[in-house]
Amino acid sequence: MWDQKTGRSRGFGFVSFRSQQDAQSAINDLTGKWLGSRQIRCNWATKGAGGMEEKQTPDNKSVVELTNGSS
């Protein structure tokens, strides 16, 4: 995701998967890995106008948030 005002990275992004199992595998495999000098944090995200709300259960979610942990 890019900041429209500054043109700089906001430090996170979203990824869609065909199956919940593939998404969970990506979360398990990527969490804690390093991307350059930044550690990756992956978790389930929900769609909503109020911003990001994380939930512990993967019910009805198909989007994974990838963040660098610095935001």
Q: What's the N-to-C terminus distance? A: 12 Å
Physical arrangement of strands within the biggest beta sheet: 1-5-4
Question: Which shape, going by the Cα principal axes?
Answer: flat
Radius of gyration: 13 Å
User: Oligomeric status of the shown chains?
Assistant: single chain
Total of helices: 1
Beta-strand segment tally: 5
The main sheet comes to: 3 strands, antiparallel
> Based on helices, strands and strand pairing, what is the structural class?
alpha+beta
Mean pLDDT score: 78
Helical proportion? Answer: 10-25%
Tally of discrete structural domains: 1
| pLDDT < 50 stretches | 52-56
Strand content: 25-35%
Order of helices and strands: EHEEEE
Question: What does it look like?
Answer:
The protein has 71 residues and is an alpha+beta fold. The chain has one domain. 15% of the residues lie in helices and 27% in strands. It has 1 helix and 5 strands, in the order E-H-E-E-E-E. The strands form 2 sheets. A 3-stranded antiparallel β-sheet has the order 1-5-4, with helices on one face. A two-stranded antiparallel sheet has the order 2-3. It is flat. 8% of the residues are buried.
